[in-house]
Write a structure and sequence with these properties.
The protein has a single domain, classed as Jelly Rolls, CATH 2.60.120. Helix content is 2%, strand content 51%. It is built from 1 helix and 14 strands.
């Protein structure tokens, strides 16, 4: 379902930034925040954010915003979904990669060399290189290293027949990252697409503790 104009208004003092996708339309909803009343110095709170890309077609986009207060990101509930918007010229796969991460101390970096606006997360120094055991000579694509501060990564895939039947995919993921965030960090969200063109949407609810 398309986002309405009222959902696109920002209700908080922060701002979100979008980058990527030169074709199609990106619709952004507000970063809404509600803080629970508490007499203690630490306060629990919830914030929501959503965005939608229309006519996703072999490209990618990112949305990100700055963290304004010292906090712990306790939970994240992330809904992602896509569906075709017209019948395909030929049957085939449709897929959308959806990710969320923290960029520490500065705005995030992106790699658009392939037109997908991939996240440029640093390599984690807490782990070694990724190794693959492949005695059967399978065709394998892999990341060569573990990326730092990537707390959500989901791939949605669906086979799209000529008549378009059943060609939609969705998922909800609830995570408890317990990530410490500081003012000047950024939360960044990514979607990129391959295959049959689709409309894709991500809705995010964040639970956090300020202080």
């Amino acid at each position: 379902m398309s986002l309405t104009k009222s959902r696109r208004k920002f209700l908080s003092g922060g701002a979100a930034v979008l980058t990527g996708v030169t074709a199609g339309e990106v619709i952004l909803s507000g970063c809404n925040s509600v803080r629970a009343a508490s007499g203690a110095s630490a306060q629990t709170a919830a914030g929501s954010f959503g965005w939608e890309v229309s006519n996703f077609n072999g490209n990618g986009a990112d949305a990100y915003f700055r963290v304004a207060s010292k906090m712990t990101l306790d939970t994240a509930s992330i809904d992602v979904a896509f569906s075709i918007v017209s019948l395909p010229s030929a049957p085939g796969l449709a897929e959308v990669l959806c990710q969320a991460a923290v960029s520490r101390g500065s705005a995030p970096k992106f790699d658009n060399s392939q037109g997908h606006a991939y996240l440029g997360q640093p390599v984690s120094t807490d782990f070694g290189v990724v190794n693959i055991y492949n005695p059967n000579g399978l065709a394998i694509n892999q990341n060569s290293a573990v990326e730092q501060d990537l707390f959500f990564s989901v791939i949605l895939k669906s086979w799209v027949p000529s008549d378009g039947g059943g060609s939609a995919a969705s998922r909800n993921v609830f995570v408890q990252p317990s990530l410490a965030l500081n003012p000047g960090d950024f939360l960044v969200f990514h979607m990129d697409h391959g295959g049959v063109p689709v409309d894709a949407e991500m809705q995010v609810v964040l639970g956090y503790t300020v202080g």
